[in-house]
Design brief:
The protein is an alpha/beta fold and about 280 residues long. The chain contains 10 helices and 11 strands. The chain binds NADPH dihydro-nicotinamide-adenine-dinucleotide phosphate.
């Protein structure tokens, strides 16, 4: 039976350490969050981020913009926040209304305040292995591997999914740690041919119970990024068929309680890091 990588506990530990660091170093971190429109799920995410900030001692500033906000108005706000000395990090909650250009908005956030790691400058820095703000979910995955002392160097790591926010940064992060990286996606033929080779298998697809036991190698480390709703039970499940796969592998992350809580913890880490850099 696999050892469970407990993201919930680890995230709690990280938040506690960050809280201590903020006090010890007398930091005054502040996160400015921009929310455009009325997306209900986004409101919940923002509330959770607010709560985490409060716990750590990060000031939280919310900018709620109406659905009909223009691109000019959005960029004006981002530029104002870029200029402000008291704002350490800026987060633009996605999705934003369709008439707005999210790519330009992300590019406008100063790389020094880009705590989500979505600005191309930070993506480029990661590519050449320089200090960068890294997208919080892949950063959280790497932190889990580190904390559980899972060796990466020389291992075959297989990533399922190549989105800009999860799959692609993971490829680079794993490569920077000297893994042999295989990336797979919806056009990959014979997916299981690759997944079976994985010493470390990371799934970021978004399909419930997509990875079955016969697709994984005995003793592999399996990280489940997926957050899906099981159509039968209505419960939140990952991409991995947890029941069956956990019998075969050495380490596994649960859903919920795995990668999810790590994402917010790493966002908090990035905000504190931004405050330290700007000090
Ligand atoms: P995207 O939809 O942007 O990307 C999904 C990826 O999976 C794509 O690269 C796609 O390939 C690939 N894919 C789809 N079908 C297959 C298939 N049959 N075989 C192999 N690959 C396939 O999703 P995200 O990366 O944003 O998110 C992935 C999952 O992670 C979602 O469930 C999301 O909810 C969750 N998530 C969880 C977070 C957390 O905090 N735990 C944070 C962010 C996301 P292609 O590129 O060819 O289309």
């Amino acid at each position: 039976m696999a050892e469970i990588i407990n993201g919930k506990e680890l995230a709690k530990k990280i938040r506690k350490e960050l809280k201590e660091e903020v006090i010890e170093k007398g930091l005054k971190p502040k996160l400015a969050v921009i929310l455009v429109g009325n997306d209900e799920a986004s409101k919940i995410y923002v509330r959770n981020k607010n709560r985490a900030c409060e716990e750590i001692g990060i000031e939280f500033e919310e900018h709620l913009l109406p659905e009909e906000t223009t691109m000019e108005e959005l960029l004006k706000l981002i530029n104002e926040l870029n200029e402000r000395k008291d704002v350490s990090g800026i987060l633009l909650q996605s999705p934003i209304p369709k008439h707005l250009d999210i790519k330009t908005a992300f590019e406008t956030i100063s790389p020094e305040k880009d705590v989500d790691g979505f600005n191309p400058i930070n993506i480029g820095r990661l590519e050449i292995n320089e200090p960068a703000f890294v997208s919080c979910t892949p950063f959280g995955v790497m932190k889990m591997l580190k904390e559980y002392k899972i060796h990466i160097e020389g291992k075959t790591a297989v990533v399922i999914g190549r989105s800009n926010i999860v799959g692609k940064p993971l490829i680079q992060l794993l490569l920077n740690k000297n893994a042999t990286v295989i990336v797979t996606h919806s056009k990959t033929r014979e997916l299981e041919k690759y997944t079976k080779q994985a010493d470390i298998l990371i799934s970021a697809v978004g399909k419930a119970k997509f990875v079955k036991a016969d697709m994984v190698k005995e003793g592999a480390v399996v990280i489940d990024v997926g957050i899906n709703r099981d159509t039968n039970t209505g419960k939140v499940v990952g991409d991995i068929d947890y029941e069956e796969v956990s019998k075969k592998v050495s380490y596994i992350t649960p859903v919920p309680g795995g990668v999810g809580p790590m994402t917010i913890a790493m966002l908090m880490h990035n905000v504190v890091q931004a405050a330290k850099n700007q000090n």
